[in-house]
Fold this sequence. Notes:
Elements: H1 2-13, H2 25-29, H3 62-79, H4 85-94, H5 99-110, E1 158-161, E2 170-173, H6 186-189, H7 193-197, H8 212-215, H9 224-236, E3 242-249, H10 256-266, H11 272-284, H12 300-305, E4 312-317, E5 321-327, H13 335-343, E6 347-353, H14 358-363, H15 368-378, E7 384-389, H16 398-414, E8 422-426, H17 441-444, H18 452-457, E9 471-480, E10 484-493, E11 495-497, E12 501-505, E13 509-518, E14 521-523, E15 525-527, E16 531-537, E17 549-551, E18 559-569, E19 580-586, E20 589-602, E21 609-612, E22 622-634, E23 646-651, E24 654-664
Parallel strand pairs: 3-5, 3-6, 6-7, 7-8
Antiparallel strand pairs: 1-2, 4-5, 9-10, 9-17, 10-16, 11-15, 12-13, 12-17, 13-14, 13-16, 18-22, 18-24, 19-20, 19-23, 20-21, 20-22, 23-24
Helix pairs in contact: 3-4, 3-5, 4-5
Amino acid sequence: KTEKMSRHRAYRNKSYDDDYGSESDEEDYQLSPSSASPGSAQYMYNRAKSNNLSSFVPEESENDDALLDELVPKVYDVVGNSHNEDDVVNALRDHDYNLERTIAYILEHLSELSVDQFDMEIETQPKKTVPAKPAAKASTPVKSTTPAKASTPTKSAPVAFKSATPGKPVTITLGVPETKTTEIPPEEKKTPLKKVLQVSSDTISPDAKMSPMAEKKINRQMPISKRTEMEEKIKNQTKEKEHINLVVIGHVDAGKSTLMGHMLYELGNVNAKTMHRYEKESKEIGKGAFSYAWVLDEHAEERTRGITMDVGVTNFETEHRKVTLLDAPGHRDFVPNMISGAAQADVALLVVDSSTDNFERGFENDGQTKEHALLARSLGVNQMGVVVNKLDSMNWNKERFDNIVGILTKFLKQSGFKDSSIFFVPCSGLTGENLVERKEEGLKSWYSGPTLLQRIDQFEPAEREVTKPFRLAITDVYKALNAGMAIGGKIEAGFVNVGDKLLLQPNNEICTVKSIRSHGGAVDYALAGENVDIGLAGIEMQHISIGNLLSDPEHPVPIAKKFRAQIVTFSLERSILAGHTVEFHYQSINEAATVSALIGVVDKATGEPSKKKPRYLDSQTTAIVEIRTRNTLCLELYANYKQLGRFTLRSGGKTIAAGIIDTLL
């Protein structure tokens, strides 16, 4: 851009006098200048044409426009809306896009107010001498909506410009008297574009009012007045029921889908006609015992194989809670899908099979009971309910229940759960005992605690980051009959309204919110913590992928492919060395990555580094490492967004570590 701007100045400083000789060049040299070289005619001045500056000044590139879109609003933040946009654009170009010198020039030469009259402070470098010019140079085509002066000789023909005041045409001469200017030191004349782009908006007072013209240059999620109105509305609103996101996890065949499907039927979320059809169809394929599981397992392959493969999402209500239910798969082949479901959850239900040998099979060796509990805790779940399922097959044996409670309590406390955040409920998903109500005398004889539904109602809702910039990780993309193209996911921070503008990353495309559905119904807005379906307009479906993020256009998600993190290793079959290849699981993303460097080992007791640059990492070790992903990803720091700052590492089909992002590199 620096080279291009120098060409602009060369054109503007050229002298186009009419003092031409009577004889043509062709008579003197027997050669037409237009035929001197191929294509040279386009650069020759033709007096037969109108004196249009656009014939001398090349068009600006897209990069210049993008830079102007970045800087013009920042200038308006300081100087106010009393200046015409073309004056601001010309001033920026004349000062090589240097924000500080442009603002100083406008305030000194183009503004009637002094700097002292603005109630703001701007952090600037030592004052630099600015050329004293009577007017900004023209660097735009003649069709500009404001007057502009150009430094051409006074003999040039006058050119008519459109006046800022309707009905009053303005005629100016393409020429200004020669004036003395204060020379700018060579090192200060030009500011590299990279430094221009790094000018922080923090140097502008937040109280400065942006002009309507400048505001159009920015893609805002919503108008400032709308945001203020929404913040006040959210602050004063009172909810009848708090919302929680509940994930159901556990070893394969523990009965998770049957358990929750039966509870949904008992609550009336599934009508008798639909349930009768499920029973009939499941018997026809020899899966009669899975009829309640079909409430959540909707895919044909899931019903045929009798296992959950993807995360089923539905909603129900308790007395004091609105619940988004996430039914995660239990098979080891689908642990990545389980991670995606747990990443959206606030609380969890760990379902275990209490029948003979089945609990031990799921808990010991390579069972998923342990891995699921560790993953849930690593992904931010801090409340865990344990459902001791299929206890009817053990004749409601209290000793079996107590034995399972003792084993899991010890393990969950070692995994980081507090005593007060763990509870156990005996029940049967197939018969429905102790789900919504308790009828079995064998259970009543020794258990008088709450039912599963009552226990879910006692979960504490998580703290919501409503005041932070909008963030949503996309977990589903589909075509909706009414909304057209739609996405699904959990709002991690902020809020969203119908009509808002959102930024899709990492594609960097702007889209518009067409509709919002939350908890099964259409709503005008949704808040952090809600699992929503959003209809989008202005973007093609093929441009959206699961794992993409939607954010506030003014506060985009950082993008990186290398970062520093603190991790905790699990049971390892072999040590982790620098260069170790892993699968990086982040929200719904599964990306190939490498542990590029081992920075140090952290003392668990003090939290301080105890060993620098270890050669390897063993099991149950807390360490600082550097990780490099194959592709560039949208990543958030744990310090800024806790839920978006967590990740897990897997290798060889097993989870080997979990961690939090500390620094983007």
